[in-house]
Amino acid sequence: MCFKVMLFDLDDTLYPRTSGIWQAIGVRMDDYIIDRLKVDPQEVANLRNELYHQYGTTLRGLREVFGIDESEFLTYVHDIPVDKFLRKDDVLIQTLSQFPQRKVIFTNADTNHAKRVVNQLGIPHLFNQVIDIQAIHPFCKPMSEAYKIAIDLACIDDPEECVMIDDSERNLLTAHELGFFTIRVGSDDRLDFMDAAVPSIYQLPEIIPV
Description:
By secondary structure, this protein is α/β, with parallel strands linked by helices. It has two domains: 5-16 and 85-207, Rossmann fold, CATH 3.40.50.1000; 21-77, DNA polymerase, domain 1. The chain contains ten helices and six strands. The protein has helices spanning 21-37, 44-55, 58-66, 70-77, 82-85, 90-97, 111-121, 144-153, 169-177, 204-207, and strands at residues 5-8, 102-106, 129-131, 162-166, 181-185, 196-198. A six-stranded parallel sheet has the order 3-2-1-4-5-6, sandwiched between helices. Helix 2 (44-55) crosses helix 3. 32% of the residues are buried.
């Protein structure tokens, strides 16, 4: 098993789901929808759930349904104190440093948020590239079109020579369909379309030889 490129999701993958970051971003999303779009607070949860499942991300749904300014939305929802939730992770640094492969972040967040996260974790030097939500516009994960753009941007010749590491079932399903070796992070519940599943990203060396 030898991979040329490793694609990593960002949120809830490079750090534990329990960090609180996604919850904080979720609060900012709710505030945006209530304050800017004047949606009844009692309806926000249902609206976000519907948009997420129909369009892939809340952002894409808000763009299609409400015509929002995407850059404004991304700036607003990611305006959280990352340093409150994350700190330098020496174990993560040691884990990822073992792999000589080219490493790329592939995320539905924006580049600014990705950089803040990797800087706080102490791992910016380990990644060659960030492919963010704006780079795959107008698509998003888990849409196959988004992956095809990412494959092109990452200069991947053959997905079968690459690995996709993500916490999301639906993101991994698309990656599997395109030929990637797929690793679920955050749970050891491995579904048919996952080649491996680990509770923590620290366990990657158990799956991929170093």
